[in-house]
Design brief:
single chain; mainly alpha; 2 domains; three-stranded antiparallel β-sheet; 65% helix; elongated
Length: 289
Amino acid sequence: MAIKNFENGRVEIGGRVVRKSNPEERKTLGMRPEYAATLEYVLSQTGFDPKSNANMQNLVKRDDEYLRNALMDFEKSLFAAYQDAMTPAISSVKNIMADTRFTNEARRNEALKAIEPARVKWIAAASKYLLNLQNGLRDIEILIGLALVPETEGMTPEVVEARARECREAVLGMEPGACAKLLLELGAKGALEPLHSLKSDPLKREAASAEVLAGAREAAIMAQGGEWLLFDWKQHKRILEAAGARLATMEAGTNYGLQALGLEGFDGNAAQWVQVVNNALAKSEAVLV
């Protein structure tokens, strides 16, 4: 077994000591959050019209307490970074747009000069905080990968490869339906060696569909007592998705807020955050294939 659970609570995955998540935290799944989201009023508290908060307020209504707690530090950091960068800039934009000594075009150009460095500063900070969450997901993916590697202690590389080749040829020569059934049975038994042999095939041949392979490998992790690891993986993907939605909402709110101040046509890229998250999630889904 790649996952070793000891009587004293110690857990090792692939020889690496890991911290098992606290099952008490699961009790907050589906529960109504006890506290308001830090970002609910970030736009108005930065200087925009209070109406700018509406989309964020509607978004965070979907949270449960588990998600709200998981995003607490992220939101606090993001709130501080947004205010630090944007509050002075919004104040400058308001003063510039109220100055009737200049033409509308001149005021707009000056306002854009005031806001763009602030946006660059905020996006850099937000990217850093989002990357922290992406790295957390990556850490879980690494553990999942280790949990699927069979023990080869005492075997030479030649023996390991010979056994893997034997497993591959046996499985790849089967009829698809029988192959899928066998793989799922192997997964349920925690038989890591034949499952890993398919993933390490130098010819990259597909023994079964991605869905079957993922199901078999997920079952292999469950068979080793790794249900908590799969739970953490699923929840961290949800956390990352929610973080991206918050960033996109803030970006869109910034666009609308600046347009309301007279910067018609201002269009920061709100979709960039969703795209970054979607790319990370798509990559994560491949960890079991």
